[in-house]
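Morning F.,

Quick status update on the modeling queue. The single chain you submitted on Monday has been processed. Sequence for confirmation:
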Amino acid sequence: MKIILKKDVLGLGYKDEILTVKDGYGRNYLIPQGFAVLCTPSAEKMLNEELKQRAHKIAKIKADAEAQAAKFQGVTVSITAKVSEGRNIYGSVGAPQIAEALAAQGLEVNPKQIAFRAVRELGHYVAPINFHRDVVVELPFSVVNEDGLTSPKKEKVEEAPVVEEAPAEEVEAEEAAEEEAETPAEEA
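Structure tokens below.
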């Protein structure tokens, strides 16, 4: 079934795109929710006419998106989380936490524009932020534990007991005995 999207649908397409989807998905979800309309010849003709009329508006929207994306160049985010015994964190870090961390740096973004799955481990990640269909910024971020480390809390390492070295004569005698023991085994 061919449809015309009326809104951006994450993972499917952008507003005013003509797509082919499965009949049930289009008829039972996209059209009733108002995300799409059926693509008939008359609807397609109206879409083309409308796109011609607002071409300059689309160019301005894209320019605004590029200006907003320029603010995010070179920005990195660090998110703190409570950590269990390993690298796993309690809960997960998702788009709302990244948007909140960006807001703390003075950069506003809608969490719906951040498209990635929530992470559940410490480490370094990249989250794509969609400002426009042609303007996507890759935002590097790291999930660290409350101490500011990207690895779990390290246990105190106990010092190994000091082993006193045997006198050199004893070491040489032991090596000679080992060589004599290995020689008959090799000949047999």
